[in-house]
Amino acid sequence: MGKRREGREAAVQFLFAHELHSEHTAEEQSAFWEIHSAKASVRAFAEELIRGVLAHRTQIDATITPVVENFRLERLAGVDRNILRVAVHELLNVPDVPAPVILNEAIEVAKNLGGAESGAFVNGVLHKLCHSIRPRPDSSRAASSSSTSTPLPS
């Protein structure tokens, strides 16, 4: 497993535990890393994600909420909720990571850490969100310009 995937999994696990304890202290973070031994690079990446999610949680939750129709965010499985938070944080605030990579990583983390339907659920939610957060360049312009090329002489 790559360091980024391992870092994402650690961030999700930390955020899940953080929700249970409702506090974020240096002692809590230290205790987490004593239990979850990780290489320094994995830990640094996970802590970057954790800080980002905690700093932007209101915006992240407001982005997710309209997409999970008929559910309150608090009613989602804790692991799924935090996987979505990490992925949405990356979509909103980490532009150097391509959206397809973020979605694939979130789906794989969901398959690893979540329930039987977590991968499909996370995929569906993030697929809907991705188009509004990071719209693809308009490919219809490229297609129309190529179709108006002059024909080759016979």
Structural domain tally: 1
General form: globular
- Biggest sheet features: none
State the CATH class: Mainly Alpha
Radius of gyration: 19 Å
Give the strand tally.
0
Count of helical regions: 8
List the secondary-structure elements in sequence, H or E: HHHHHHHH
Q: At the fourth CATH level, what is the homologous superfamily?
A: NusB-like
Write the layout of secondary structure elements.
Elements: H1 3-21, H2 26-35, H3 40-55, H4 57-64, H5 78-93, H6 99-113, H7 118-133, H8 139-147
Helix pairs in contact: 1-3, 1-5, 3-5, 4-5, 5-6, 5-7, 6-7
Structural summary, described in words:
This protein has helices spanning 3-21, 26-35, 40-55, 57-64, 78-93, 99-113, 118-133, 139-147. By secondary structure, it is mainly alpha-helical. The protein has one domain: N-utilizing Substance Protein B Homolog, Chain A, CATH 1.10.940. Helix 6 runs antiparallel to helix 7. The protein is globular, with a radius of gyration of 19 Å.
